[in-house]
Amino acid sequence: MKGIYIDENACMGCQLCEVYCQVEHSPSRDILRAFHKERPLLTPRIRIQQTVNSFVAVQCKHCSEPWCVYACLTGALSKDPVSGVVTLASAKCVGCWTCVMACPFGAITPDFAEGVIVKCDLCPERDVPACVAGCPNKALLFTDDRKEPERDLVAVGTEESMQEGW
Amino acid sequence: MGRSANTKTRYLIIGNSAGGIGSAEAIRQADRTGPITIISEEPYPAYSRPLISEYLSGRRSPREMLLRDTAFYSRNGIDCLLGRRALRLDVENRTVELDDGTSIGWEKLLLATGGTPIIPKVKGIDKKGVFTFTALDDAKAIRQQVPPDATVAVIGGGLIGVSVSQALSQRGNSVVMVELMDRVLSAALDKRASRLVEKTLQAAGIDVVTGCAVEEIVGMAADEERVAAVLLNDGRRIECQAVIAAIGVLPRTDLIAGTAVGTDRGIVVDRHMATSCSDIYACGDAAEAYDFVRGEEKLTPIWPNAYAGGRIAGLNMAGRPAVYEGTTNMNSFNYFGLPIISAGIVEPPDLSSYKVLQSPMANGGTYQRIVLRDNRVVGMVFVGDIQSAGIVIGLMRTRADVRGFQRSLVSGGLSLASPPGELRQAMLAQAMPAAI
Fold it and tell me: A52: exposed, middle or buried (C-beta count within 10 Å: 0-12, 13-18, 19+)?
């Protein structure tokens, strides 16, 4: 299945992926409404964390052996047999946080106010998840495996681009 | 459905809770068609056992406790015999005799028989008004027989004792919880976290009595057979209308008594969850499975371990070799909104071979604690901010050397960015989905 990967060295830590995630999962899906009117502001399901010299994107990896699904006390979490997406049925979640304990990536966020977890759903209504689609410098990738795909990068700082009127 | 007196199945699973379901789902991944039969003593489709607290408090209905949707068994071609009890196991002839006189032949057998509540040897324990709390029927009995304004004495301040105390308190009951040790949840938490839980319980109105044992359950003057009070070993008498015996569970092994299936404290299994008898597997509360912190087989009667063990058993039963990586004691508590996650050895037996790192307490009860041995994490407690607790448990599971970033584990800012790049890549490589 396809997963979200980050090029740790390309990420500049702008955290726009978090914003696009919040907007995508907001009731209006409108950035102005989501940030000005709708409360509470949603918890992003992807988070950018800084290392000494790079950035790491933390979001559900939709593991092939999902510990969170195996640990879930209520059956709220399941791995979709077709899409492979680790899926939450919110109505069945009781906020026991057992999946938070089980996830080796810290990728499941407890929403203490609502009493349920929040996690990446790979944006089921989109071909490419909102965080990846919105990443301004293609540091986030949506691809089949960890190998970086051939990317259609604009050569920066070359003679050619200079001539285009930089 | 008319079952003839003797039927045969490929996979027979005794037990319909986390371990049984874990194995059935794994079998179906590896074998789409082989007949699966599940025997369940309880009359209900698989339900979330931990949620019996939510049922007792009135927050969830039995329908809302179902672990899988109603079509689960038919969709997966599982013949589930509800309300049937396995009486005798014949290892030689590969059959199990049921309480309706029929018998089922099997090619692969899983013993997911679970645990049975420990009944304390206390005078008066057989009186009316004494309950255990491990199954939906226990919670139903309490709801039917104990009015919400009654005072209830809970024997035991472990996982079951604290859970039932919270549920009773939420329901309106006055609760006196009596724990033998000097603190609650002593097997799961360090002393500081135990105190935080005690304070939380007390703030909710629960009377927490530690370092005390119930010596006797006394009956009413009018009806000697009905609970009127408990007597503690410090001389106190606590008037109550009901008693919950909540001191834990023991492996349920009655079915294999007298058979060749090997037992120690529970059913002994190897790293494939296989017992000493070929084609017989075991998992969950009934089995002693590998503990990656202690490096030995151990009873760890918690839900996630039952499912994980059942899954490994199921894969092996279906002919797909799988090794149980092991697990350890780990719990996520959320009593009255105080989140705590703990795992492994939280109070080391000595400080010569163990090292404890702990953050100061912040925000009225948020801290992180880890216990190290040979530069590896062997225990952890996170209180309040629990988001990254699983990272620590993942490092425990993989026995990662945490020199160089061990301080970040208790910094409050732990994330996937904390481990050095090479280790992080190794961690991520484990998760990355292969083709499905």
Answer: exposed
ipTM, two decimals, is 0.95
Residue B331 has pLDDT above 80, yes or no: yes
Task: Pick B431's closest partner by Cβ from A55, A70, A105.
Answer: A105
Number of A–B residue contacts, CB under 8 Å = 136
Task: Domain of residue A68: give its range.
Answer: 62-119
Q: Nearest chain B residue to A85 by CA: give it.
A: B433
Answer yes or no: is pLDDT of A115 > 70.
yes
The reply to whether residue A101 touches residue B311, judged by beta carbons under 8 angstroms, is no
Contact B304, A98 (CB under 8 A): yes
Task: Report which residue type is found at A13.
Answer: G
pLDDT at B3: 56
Tens-place pLDDT, residues B33-66: 999 999 999 999 999 999 999 999 999 999 999 9
CATH number at residue A4: 3.30.70
Q: Which of B17, B25, B48 to mutate to test the interface with A (most CBs of A within 10 A)?
A: B48
Share the mean pLDDT of chain B. 95
State the CATH architecture for B6-116+250-317: 3-Layer(bba) Sandwich (3.50)
Distance from CA of B133 to the nearest CA of A (A): 17
Cβ B432–A146 below 8 Å, yes or no?
Answer: yes
Where are chain B's structural domains?
Answer: 6-116+250-317, 130-247, 339-427
pTM value is 0.93
Q: Which of these CATH numbers, 3.30.390.30, 1.10.290.10, 3.30.1540.10, 3.40.50.300, describes B339-427? A: 3.30.390.30
Count Cβ neighbours within 10 Å for each residue of B266-282 and write b for 16 or more, e otherwise: bbbbeebbbbebeebbb
